[in-house]
Design a protein that fits this description.
Length: about 280
Amino acid sequence: MGKVIGIDIGGSTTKIVGFDGKTMIAPLLVRANDPIASVYGAFGKFLTAHSLKIEDIERIMITGVGSSFINNRLFGIPTGKVDEFMAIGMGGLFLSDLNKAIIVSMGTGTALVKAENNTAVHLGGTGVGGGTLLGLSNRMLNVRHFDELIEAANGGDLSHVDLTIGDISKEVMETLPNETTASNFGKISDLVTKSDLAMGIINLVFQTIGMIAVFNTRIDKIKDVVLTGNLTNVPQSEYIFTQLSKLYDVNFQTPPNAEYATAVGAAICFRQDVAFREVQ
């Protein structure tokens, strides 16, 4: 039995992962604006990194917005296209070892998928995501890269940026602790620093994503939320989601290799007999 490759072709990044039976081969990422160039580049880099040959590959499974540009088999290898929401759902369940969860894919924007066993339903999403982080940080801080924003946010104090329940009420609310955000950017202090603003931007984006996920857990009566996508690499997000978990009794979790979940989902759809379309 040969190896199965999953490729998530995005607008600016392509992610690739392999499976040897049930064992995952370390994934990798390449950046390129041309989806066709990126998929061939990612595949070649993956083979080289893991000392593989084309004849070692049994199947390639592709997904993502860039997969629409792929109309022929890659390298003559049997190639299938997987619906992106199905790939998000199956990848999230596999990485988290859950049978049922809401999978949140945090990229340029954010998509939410309800996944259960071999089914996935797109719940909706929001335009708030990585694009929002970079757009706001560019205009407000002249910061254009994720690494710079993350570094800038170190030591940021949200009390100089956000209005909290404690700021507007003298009474202790049983369900809302004083530190709960009442208004993002609702209290810009004269003492505000670049670090405070950077942390405020990060807090705004992840609280918005987190609350949309919380609302969906209420609708579908699911407590497990699996976080996936590039934004899982923003370290400040862990604290934000931990606070939301405590406040709303929801189990937010970020599994290992979470940024590769969609590529993982594309690959395992082949083994799990999930519907996909053959590329001729």
